[in-house]
Amino acid sequence: MDIRTRRLLPPLSLAIALALSACGDNDAPVAPAIPPTELAAVETPPPAYPPEAECDSNGGTTVLRVTIERDGVPAQVNQVQSSGNDALDQAALEAVRGWKFRAATRNGNPVSHTITVPVTFPPVLEKPTRCFAQGAPR
User: Fold this and answer.
1) Is residue 136 pLDDT above 70, yes or no?
2) Fewest Cβ atoms nearer than 10 Å: which of 15, 54, 82, 113?
3) Domains plus CATH for the chain?
4) 86-112 b/e with 16+ CB inside 10 Å = b?
5) DSSP string, 30-70
């Protein structure tokens, strides 16, 4: 073995050893990546129209910030923007608190998620007949 070969042998051996150790155990199974899923609404019935707002032909949009927990249930529901009508705002809050979701997942595990939800009450174009009865809300 000449002198050049003797000088190259230790670094070359080290490089080969490092390359082989980086390969790891080729027989070990690799866990498949679990794709994330997004939050999905499951049960979101519209809120009941408050009678006083309906008879006054009030409409508007209440914007809520909702935190959905890992079990798919809204844990926190906070009003971000008012519709301009307290009865509509309360109806929106009550309805959304009862909604059900399928939680978002990351790496196969459910995670909490916060969303913004606009709840719109269209103006009533035709008042119900009860609005014209004596003693009915305006």
Assistant:
1) no
2) 15
3) 40-132 (3.30.2420.10)
4) ebbbebbbebbeebebebbbeeeebee
5) PPPP---B--EEEE-PPPPPPHHHHHTT--EEEEEEEEE-T
